[in-house]
């Protein structure tokens, strides 16, 4: 994804339940360490920022080729189509017929929207904080993301303070993402994370402009506790919206919760030198 001649943001592709990193015209398979080209089942990253809005994409002829073709209409903030959308379908996303659940196609009511939702994440490999990439969490994985955010929220930890493993739910026929905490960053890594957040890279990842007005780049970590000090935002609340706006209670994966509790317990929380 190139914003200009000089700014190209690497994109993580999950097509076919396989991780690829796309840098311009180059597509690189993510492989297991010390393997003979075997695809990696998961990646370990630092989630630097989640865009506060829900991005939307619409393809007039369907989204079968959405990994390589630019959508006909899209919105980075889920409010209005982007200025360079080649075929805007409405002035505002809320009023667009393609944004409705259950439109009739060939006389049948579809459960999915023609315009698909996704959450945009700016992240970096745990060992390469300066290599910031974009991952679009598809609609079918948004509940999984909300579950993960709730798990961290209940323990006072924010994504930039946690090493996150992202993998696939292989019980699904489509690429469905799962998120798991596997570690906490240290003081050195926290300083590097803050440097990235203080730079303009998030503007490049999310496209800049008005759709980043709500993104707060401040991130202060108490290294002894591994917790961030800022107030949690609306996206980190403990409920998620299901189909037709129905609010569903979130259930936390007990094994993940226990793992995160152990990580926090292993840290020295005393004030003694």
Low-confidence stretches: 209-252, 268-273
Number of domains: 1
Approximately how much beta-strand content do the residues carry? 25-35%
Choose one word for the global shape: globular
The N- to C-terminal Cα distance equals 47 Å
Question: What string gives the helices and strands in order?
Answer: EEEEEEEEEEHEEHHEEEEH
- Biggest sheet: strands, sense, closure? 10 strands, mixed
Mean pLDDT across residues: 77
Number of helices: 4
Rg computed from alpha carbons, rounded to a whole number of angstroms: 19 Å
**Considering DSSP H and I runs of 4 or more, what fraction of the residues is helical?**
10-25%
Tell how many strands the DSSP assignment holds.
16
Label the structural class.
alpha+beta
Structure, explained:
By secondary structure, this protein is an alpha+beta fold. It has one domain (11-266). 16% of the residues lie in helices and 26% in strands. It is built from four helices and 16 strands. It has helices spanning 142-153, 187-198, 201-206, 254-266; strands at residues 11-13, 20-23, 26-29, 42-50, 55-58, 73-75, 104-105, 108-109, 116-125, 133-138, 162-168, 177-184, 221-222, 227-228, 239-241, 247-249. Strands 1, 2, 3, 4, 5, 6, 9, 10, 11 and 12 form a ten-stranded mixed sheet that branches. A hairpin with a 5-residue loop joins strand 15 (239-241) and strand 16. The radius of gyration is 19 Å and the shape is globular. Residues 209-252 and 268-273 have low confidence and may be disordered.
């Amino acid at each position: 994804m190139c914003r200009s001649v000089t700014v190209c943001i690497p994109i993580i592709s999950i097509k076919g339940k396989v991780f690829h990193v796309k840098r311009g015209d180059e597509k690189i398979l993510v492989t297991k360490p010390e393997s003979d080209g075997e695809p990696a089942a998961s990646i370990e990253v630092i989630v630097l920022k989640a865009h506060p809005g829900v991005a939307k994409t619409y393809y007039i002829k369907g989204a079968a080729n959405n990994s390589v073709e630019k959508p006909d209409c899209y919105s980075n903030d889920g409010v209005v189509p982007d200025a360079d959308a080649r075929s805007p379908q409405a002035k505002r996303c809320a009023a667009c017929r393609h944004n409705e659940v259950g439109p009739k196609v060939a006389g049948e009511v579809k459960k999915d929207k023609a315009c698909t939702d996704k959450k945009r994440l700016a992240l970096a490999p745990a060992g390469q904080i300066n290599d910031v990439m974009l991952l679009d969490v598809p609609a079918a994985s948004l509940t999984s993301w909300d579950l993960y955010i709730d798990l961290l929220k209940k323990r006072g930890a924010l994504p930039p303070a946690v090493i996150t493993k992202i993998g696939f739910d292989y019980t699904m026929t489509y690429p469905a993402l799962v998120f798991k905490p596997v570690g906490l960053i240290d003081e050195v890594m926290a300083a590097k994370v803050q440097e990235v957040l203080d730079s303009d890279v998030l503007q490049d990842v999310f496209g800049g402009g008005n759709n980043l007005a709500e993104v707060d780049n401040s991130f202060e970590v108490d290294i002894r506790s591994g917790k961030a000090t800022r107030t949690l935002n609306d996206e980190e609340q403990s409920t998620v919206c299901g189909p037709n706006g129905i609010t569903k209670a979130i259930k936390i994966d007990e094994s993940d919760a226990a793992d995160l509790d152990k990580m926090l317990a292993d840290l020295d929380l005393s004030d003694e030198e």
